[in-house]
Amino acid sequence: MSSQTYRNPEGGLIDREQPFGFSFDGMGYQGYAGDTVASALLANGVHLAGRSFKYHRPRGIYTAGPEEPNALLELRNGARREPNTRATVAELYQGLEATSQNRWPSLKWDLMSIAGEASAFLPAGFYYKTFMWPKQFWEKLYEPAIRRAAGLGRAATLEDPDHYERCTLHCDVLVVGAGPAGLVAALSAARSGARVVLVEQDHRVGGSLLRSAVQLDGHEATRRVDQLRVDFLQCEQATLLNRTTVFGYYDHNILGAVERVCDHLAVPPAHQPRQRLWRIHAGRVVLATGAIERPLVFGNNDRPGIMLAGAVSTYVNRYAVRPGKRAVVFTNNSSAYQTVRDLTRAGISVVAVVDSRASVDPQQIAMTHDAGARHFGKAMVSNANGRLRLNGVDIVSGGGSEHIECDLLCVSGGWNPDVQLHSQTGVRPLWSARHAAFLPAEPRQAECSIGACKGQFDLAAALSQGVAAGVDAARQCGFKSAGQIAVPTVDRIEAPYHIEALWRVRAGRAKALVDFQNDVARTDIALSAREGYRSVEHMKRYTTLGMATDQGKLSGVNGLAILAEELGKPIEQVGTTTFRPPVVPVSMGILAGTSRGRLFQPTRYTPMHQWAVNRAAVFVEAGQWLRPRYYPKSGEGMMAASVRETLGVRSSVGLCDVSTLGKIDVQGRDVAEFLNRLYCNGWKTLPVGKARYGLMLREDGLVLDDGTTSRLSDQHYFMTTTTAEAAAVMGHMEYYHQAVWPELDVQYCSVTEQWAAMAIAGPNSRKVLQKLVTSLDISNEAFPFLAAAEFQLGGFTARLFRISFSGELAFELNVPAGYGESVWQALMEAGEEFDIVPYGTEALGIMRIEKGHVAGPEVNGQTSAADMGLGGMMSGKKDYIGRPMAARQAFLEEQRERLIGLRCVSKADRLYAGAHLVGIDDAAVIANDQGHITSITYSPMLDIWIGLGFIKGGTSRIGEKLRAVNPLQDHEAEVEVVSPHFFDPDNERLYV
Amino acid sequence: MRINCPCCGKRPIDEFSYLGDATLKRPQVAGGEATREWHDYVYLRDNVRGPHYEYWHHTGGCRVWLVVHRDTLSHEIFEVLLASDWRQRQV
Fold this sequence. Notes:
The complex is a heterodimer.
Chain A: E1 15-24, E2 27-33, H1 37-43, E3 48-51, E4 58-60, E5 72-75, E6 82-86, E7 96-99, H2 114-117, H3 126-129, H4 137-149, E8 164-176, H5 180-191, E9 196-199, E10 215-216, E11 219-220, H6 221-234, E12 238-241, E13 244-250, E14 254-259, E15 275-287, E16 291-293, E17 306-308, H7 309-317, E18 326-331, H8 336-345, E19 349-355, H9 362-370, E20 374-376, E21 379-385, E22 392-397, E23 400-405, E24 408-412, E25 415-417, H10 420-424, E26 430-432, E27 437-439, E28 447-449, H11 459-476, E29 513-515, E30 520-521, H12 522-530, H13 536-543, H14 556-567, H15 571-574, H16 588-592, H17 609-614, E31 618-622, E32 625-630, H18 638-651, E33 654-657, E34 662-667, H19 671-678, E35 690-697, E36 703-713, E37 716-721, H20 726-740, E38 747-750, E39 755-761, H21 765-772, E40 788-793, E41 796-801, E42 810-816, H22 820-830, E43 837-838, H23 841-851, H24 883-886, H25 889-892, E44 897-904, E45 916-919, E46 931-939, E47 944-952, E48 961-966, E49 971-978
Parallel strand pairs in A: 1-7, 8-9, 8-15, 9-12, 15-28, 17-24, 18-19, 18-24, 19-20, 33-43
Antiparallel strand pairs in A: 1-2, 3-4, 5-6, 5-7, 10-11, 13-14, 14-15, 16-25, 21-22, 22-23, 26-27, 29-30, 31-32, 33-39, 34-37, 34-38, 35-36, 36-37, 39-42, 40-41, 41-42, 44-47, 44-49, 45-46, 45-48, 46-47, 48-49
Helix pairs in contact in A: 5-6, 5-11, 7-8, 12-14, 18-23
Chain B: E1 2-5, E2 9-12, E3 17-21, H1 36-43, E4 51-57, E5 65-71, E6 77-82, H2 83-90
Antiparallel strand pairs in B: 1-2, 3-4, 4-5, 5-6
């Protein structure tokens, strides 16, 4: 394990008592608690962290924050392997395993870097131009090859073992960013009693103060910041969410944030989520998101050892790391001189400061000389030397050029206020020439920006802005200030921020990158402009500038400024691309939250579920329900079991759990009228004690659902729907009653869960039922087909309906849900002498196909009543939903596909649902298509495969022979078109 | 987005489902003819940019149908009323 050669012996916000061992590309290293992976690598002298996306150029750690474009690593292993993790924000933990990406065979010897040599042939949009011929090679050869060569890390292929949560939070004031401005804003808002949430992406509060050696109120800034944090947390209504990034700003002042609860640990502790998604409803939002430093664009500006000046200050001050031994600073603004000071104090020799500005504060020049460095005014770095690590820079100034050796180059192209969240609200940021950056515009939502994200780079001014904004936000939420908190005083007054924009260094021929992550060079932007992609949105898409995981945080402004130069337009006329969430990459896990696997949706169990489980039933998912599919005897497969169950019902008696059918209790004076409008058939004549089959249409004339409705008493009806459409029918009724016919006196309520329902079917069903039902005469005369009654069963009221889906003599018994299992049990015992069989949805399906009853596969939202042979149900005497549109010409066409039955010609053949029907001698092509099969089964009663389907011309085709072709199964069978009523077509078994 | 349900108060959008334009008038049902008026009512929709009256169903709440007066651009909600009251206003 190598020692931390580049770590200073003291200082920094790291815990030297807590050393952590970790590995990078298999090599062991050591860091400390408080380190990021990046700072720990730098402490060990490791700069080279990855290879670039397209040209496989060696890349080093470039930033110290979430904007990092280069140091993207795979963290962890196996199921927790996570690609594209930014080393600059990944907190170190004991045993962390990190791997570099996008290189082969190794980071130092990457064979793909040949792409860099060939880069002249790979400009922006190259794949539109160079790989076009021959055409079929694109899909098979070029695209897969390009995708392999480009790309980032590898996602885990195993199921994510961690869990994620979604939470909602309401507050008066949300402060985003706990830097100096945000921290005092949150404190002053919270002191007035408002409910304040302060969100910070780092695990520590302090923001830019963490990289600075400044003093506040006469103390080290970091100590003062800790005190402010404690003061804030002592407020009653204060919440601090650290390790949390607000990634999206949505309408109604709702913001999305991700809290990385356990990313800093190897494995989350038991019952802790890995990450948490927060949906925050805020009264007022105070944005204090700071600013992001810009790179400078010059030859080979991406070499490892080149870093942003602010990032260097962070590594030096916060992590006590020396990122190099001999440093050069290249800047176009005044802020980089703080880095000169930080470097000197950390014992790193600064050899030169290269400042492109025409006017530089003389004090800063003097300070440079005091540091023992040369000062180059009106000068630029034109090229960086070294491949795997920087070893020198070429400086151009006046007419001359000079080479200086160094291993660290600190660059500062100025600061972009982080206006991402503000801009997501639909506001275009405004260009400020003085800042050479975009600033927030007039807010559209209840928000304000403060501090560096508003362009206020002066610490003292940002602090007083923060205090005022906190008071103001609380006041706007109705809280009076309890006396403003004191604005912390700053020990050192810096020269005001001054910048002279420099978008690119034109000297030199070497590749100068604008977007590191997508390998977009300055020449690509020029090419884009030349080829006519002049809108900034087009340029973005043509060059892919700003489209990588960093979303252009570093490259965006440089890119559009270079485009503006190419077009000869001012920057404000070029404008920005649209800002959209998320600000940082968000894992799919938190978006899914707990809605995964078994918890994706609730599981509904019928009252008789446990009985079926005990009986080893095999279940099928029907929407949210679990329904017994069949009840196998030992060794029985589905086919054998469901055939046995069918034969049991048809020969004697069976019992089926139908509790999942939708049940709606309907009451009121106008129920008959309401039903008359909902169903296409008539309801005015339904007497008390009777059930009727009904068909509901949608307004477009197609069938919505079917089911039976019974009249229990004068103004009390009981409706059933299919399992699948229960909720839709309920919503349909609510819509028409509330929005269209509010004058109707009806009340209705879903009672699906309140009643256990069982179908008892078969020639012996009455005999079984009679053993239990003694208070009601259920003989054929007293209780004929479609009779309905309420009666006393033991100590409770039950309901009995004589309806049948199987075509057999059958009853449906409804009992209060709590009695379901015991009544079922009693029926099974009563039926023992008749060899009663419990039957599942498979046998149910077999019997309904044998009877030609339509179900879900036929009532699929594309079929009309007439299509299913139910046109006769459509009343001509009344108005109902769907009537006018069902009369459309297209629905009446002779050649429309209508329901028919199909049976195999040969007993040796079988059918597949989804097969299409073509003439015996016709080719199986769509032009010859006659129709298709919707439902199939082996019929135990006919001992042959049968099916239901739709065919042009419908029942007029009965007798024809066709081929049923299913290319997906590579199968075809000869079939005969028959009536859909295969078994007992005259319903002789039903009325006994 | 939150909708201020007259029965339940401000509730998150997840509890609601959307139907669409509430300004369409269902043609007076008379006989069984598929008139142009019916065709337009069933199939034609304006894609309004700006203030719009639309039906929302408090599916995961009180099951009431609402008419929400909403700006489709900013999602600002001006008014929420019961569909039955809206119907009265229309008549």
